[in-house]
Design brief:
- By secondary structure, the protein is an alpha/beta fold.
- It has one domain: Alpha-Beta Barrel (TIM Barrel), CATH 3.20.20.
- It is about 45% helix and about 20% strand.
- Strand 10, helix 10 and strand 11 form a beta-alpha-beta unit.
- It starts with a helix and ends in a 6-residue tail after the last helix.
- The model has no long low-confidence stretch (mean pLDDT about 95).
């Protein structure tokens, strides 16, 4: 089943477009988890990875019936080496077993056989002594399209052959994004759609390419498996991009801790109230830290309540059902 169709179906089933970011930080893992794991594995990288995995399972169990998707950011895991990678892969598997769509936030990009390797590792199959076996087989992957089509093609091919998805960086949520992404370009010669002397920003040009790259992967839902990362912190630009990429699903970071609110993410949606998945990480997984009702022992319950609160916040601006 086409990835976009699966994601849209999951959003409709859960009645909201929330994606929970699984970005664990060791100094914020509840003490009862840390104490138990250290007693078994001491102060090792393996212990850190085990803490992450147990913490993530608690979050996943608490929210899997509420939200359609989760997004583990690989940077928080790979700093702990092979043990961290194990925790990452096991987190992805567990989330899929619980019915969540898993978006691997790894922002991979390269060309040729290296790009093919990344694509196989996350989305497709790998060679195991002459036998093809699934790689990590997450549902979707974030990618950086800076190297152009030959850096993106292996990932698009995986979307087609394995019914996976990608989200390419377009307009990111960080404060300095405009240093490159807002620069204006003369784009004559890019395609027949543009005349000599036409100008657009870097992020608009990237949107043009993504809309083109995903045109052959539009499912029955009307959306493509080639999506875009568009930050919640730039709603005016999101309005422009929504018109430029009507068939692309937006993965929207920046809600909550980074300053974006429900009104800011509203422009990321189409008139059908679809077309975007809104990520929230710290405000959900570490909700217990700001709660008078919950403590570290009930961190998962706090995350569950935080999801319900986000559902209501989005509904206040007409997002969700």
């Amino acid at each position: 089943m086409n990835f976009a169709d699966r994601l849209v179906a999951a959003i409709k089933k859960k009645g909201n477009p929330i994606c929970v970011g699984l970005d664990p930080r060791l100094d914020q893992i509840p003490a009862h988890i840390v104490t138990k794991v250290i007693s078994e594995k001491e102060h090792t990288k393996a212990a850190a990875a085990e803490c992450f995995l147990e913490f993530n399972k608690g979050i996943i169990d608490a929210v899997c019936d509420i939200v359609p998707a989760c997004k583990p950011q690989i940077a928080f895991y790979e700093q702990y080496g092979f043990a961290g990678y194990f925790a990452y892969e096991e987190t992805c598997k567990y989330a899929q077993e619980k019915g969540l769509i898993v978006i691997a936030d790894a922002k991979r990009n390269d060309i040729g056989s290296t790009a093919e390797g990344y694509s196989s590792a996350f989305l497709g199959e790998v060679d195991l002594f002459g036998v093809k076996v699934p790689g990590m087989a997450v549902d979707a992957l974030t990618v950086n399209a800076y190297l152009g089509w030959d850096g993106i093609k292996p990932f698009v091919d995986a979307c087609r052959y394995y019914d996976r998805g990608i989200f390419a960086l377009v307009k990111t949520s960080n404060p300095s994004a405009g240093e490159l992404q807002d620069q204006e370009l003369s784009i004559s010669g890019v395609s027949s759609d543009f005349a000599a002397g036409d100008r657009m920003t870097v992020y608009e040009l990237m949107a043009h390419y993504i809309d083109s790259w995903g045109a052959d992967l539009i499912g029955d839902s009307g959306y493509s498996s080639v999506g875009a990362v568009v930050g919640a912190t730039y709603p005016d630009q999101a309005r422009i991009l929504r018109k430029m990429m009507p068939s692309s699903i937006f993965l929207v970071p920046g809600y909550g801790a980074q300053g974006g609110g429900a009104a800011d993410v509203k422009p990321c949606f189409n008139e059908d109230s679809l077309g975007a998945i809104i990520n929230s990480s710290r405000d959900i997984i570490f909700a217990y830290e700001k709660s008078d009702q919950f403590d570290s022992a009930t961190y998962a319950d706090a995350a569950r309540v935080a999801c319900f609160e986000m559902v209501q916040d989005l509904k206040s601006v007409g997002i969700g059902s």
